[in-house]
Predict the 3D structure of the following.
Amino acid sequence: MTDIPLISPRRARIAGVFDASSVPGIALGCTMMGFAVIAREAGFDFWMTFLTSFSVWGMPGQVAFVSLYATGASLFLMFVAVALANMRMMLMVISGADILRLREAGLPLWKRVLMMHLLAITSWAQISYRQKDYSPANLRVYYLSFSLTIFAFGMAGTTIGYYLDDVMPPEILRLVIFITPIYILLLLMNAQQSVSRLAAVLGGAACPFLYAIAGDWAILFAGFLGGTGAIAYYQLKAYIEDKGRLDG
C-alpha cells in the first residue's frame, strides 16, 4: 500500500463524481428508465415508482416487487420475494465492506448501513477496479461520491422513464434496461485480476447452454461455474508452476 499516491479527499471526491458522470451514471440511468416503464405498466403511480427505486435500489428486487404487485400478490409475499431477490447482494456487500475497510474506519453502524445501501453492482465493480489507486480513506470518499452520483442518475432515470413512456414506444424503453449489464461486463473484461476476466468469459459462454436446461436459474449456475472454473484453473496453474520449480 506504500506505493499508492496520497491525494486530498477533495480530489478523490471530484474523481468519484467525474467517473460516475460518464458511462456508469448514464448506464444506470437508462436501466432505471426501463424499470420505470415496467412499473407504470404494472399500475404504479409516479411516487410509488420513485420510492421503489429510492428504497430498494436493486433491479432484481424492484422487478420482483412490480411483477407481484401486478398479479395482486399479498404484501407478505412481495416482501419475501424482494428480500430473496436482493439476497444475492449479500456477498457483494461483504466484499464491498472489506474493500472499503469499513470495520477499520471506526464508523458507527448506521453510517455503514447507509453506505452499503448505496452499493450497486456498478459501484462495487468500480471500487474493485480502482482500489489499487487510492488509500482506504480516499477510497471511501471516492466510493461515496461515485455512489451518490449514480444514485442521482438512477433517480433521474426513474423520473424521465416514467413520463417518457408517453412519447416513446415501451418496447424501445425496455431495451435500455440491458445497458448496465453490458457496461459491467466490459468493466470486468478490463479488470486488473486475470481470474475475473476468465470467470466472465467462462460464465458468459456457459450461460446459453445452461439456459436450455435450467431456464431462469441459468445465470446463477453460469456465474457459479465461471467463478469456480476460473479459480480452479489459476490454483492448478500455480500448483504446476510451484511443482516445476521444486523439481528443477
Remarks:
- The chain has 14 helices and no strands.
